[in-house]
Structures are given as structure tokens and as C-alpha cells.
Design a protein that fits this description.
Distance between the termini: 75 Å
Shape: rod-shaped
Largest sheet: none
Helix content: over 70%
Low-confidence stretches: none
Number of helices: 1
Structural class: mainly alpha
């Protein structure tokens, strides 16, 4: 019985950890996208202004 309880408790924990990892990756990609996207957008705007 003890082993079945441990496996039952481990399943939700692994799901929570997986969700946490996915959430962390999601937020990390958003943060990196904002940090990298900002300068890229600025460069595009500057290049367009220079072209005009």
C-alpha cells in the first residue's frame, strides 16, 4: 500500500514540476523576446528613417 501511495503522490508532483518548467520557459522566452525584440525593432525603425 505504501508504494502505491508514493506513486500516486509522485504523479501530481511531476505534473506540477513539468507545468512549472513550462511556465518558466514561457516567461523566459517572453523576457528574451522583449529584450531582443526591442533593439531589433529600434534598428528597423532607424533603418527605415535613414532609407527615407
Amino acid at each position: 500500500m505504501g508504494h502505491t501511495r508514493k506513486t500516486a503522490q509522485c504523479a501530481p508532483m511531476t505534473r506540477k514540476t513539468m507545468l512549472r518548467v513550462l511556465a518558466d520557459l514561457f516567461f523566459a522566452t517572453i523576457l528574451f523576446g522583449a529584450l531582443l525584440g526591442g533593439p531589433i525593432v529600434m534598428l528597423i525603425l532607424v533603418s527605415e528613417r535613414l532609407a527615407l
